[in-house]
Amino acid sequence: xxxxxxxxxVAFDTEPIWGTWFQSFAAGAHxxxxxxxxxxVAGYASGASAACGKAFAITGVDYADVxxxxxxMPPDCxxxxxxxxEKLPFPAASFDGASSQFGIEYADTRPALQELGRVxxxxxxxxxxxxxxxxxxxxxxxxxxxxxxxxxxKSGAIRHARRAFTAHxxxxxxxxxxxxxxxxxxxxxxxxxxxxxxxxxxxxxxYLDDLAxxxxxxxxxxxxxxxxxxxAGNAAWRHRQQSQTRAxxxxxxxxxxxxxxxxxxxxxxxxxxxxxxxxxxIGWRAAFLKS
Length: 291
Hints:
By secondary structure, the chain is α/β, with parallel strands linked by helices. It has helices spanning 15-23, 40-52, 67-71, 109-119, 136-152, 157-170, 175-191, 199-213, 220-247, 251-263; strands spanning 2-5, 8-11, 30-34, 57-61, 77-80, 95-101, 120-130, 266-275, 281-290.
């Protein structure tokens, strides 16, 4: 995980947090990582197992397809895709511990916490790192969305590019579409600002500028296919950014989360703000005990 600074991206390493916590479990513990993604935290659990000489059984779940990530995991880790946190496919009281690194808050937290309470054993523990609405991560995410919208939100560059390559594919006049593409890219480039918030959209504009400068040099069918992938990728990126800002919890949101956890039989044992070495707020840290 990285935080953008004026000097470039700075990594925020959560492994020490997870390593210490996982090592506190007894040998043979069954551990569950929620919204595991690429299995990073599950991997930390495996590393903690090796470091303390205790064997753990580690399961990571995610709604997304995690088959590729699962193939790279250590033997003591298994990753399951297509799993909604609101409906975990495990018997009651299956796990001694559960982790979530910026994951559970993306779910419908009321049923997700009920499911977590169901699958944890009595005295089972959970540790969660949760997005904070006023963290540096959330602020930078919101700034990146605003930068994208300011530069490409109303731009017709992709539409004009598609028209130009379609004209070339069909052997039709393409000069007007090419001129419109170059104009749209130039207008987008003028809106770029020299701040880190504009770095993602700067790359996108650069890609479109490359197309605009040499439409005739690209094979039309291939260029159209690449444009489709580019546009889908942009939409997916923006959706992820928006999802993060929506999932982030402010103070009342955190309190509501804790209350929902209590209703699921999860008693709060720790609550703190998570900060980096420079004192920047990164997120919420919350720990729970299954009663």
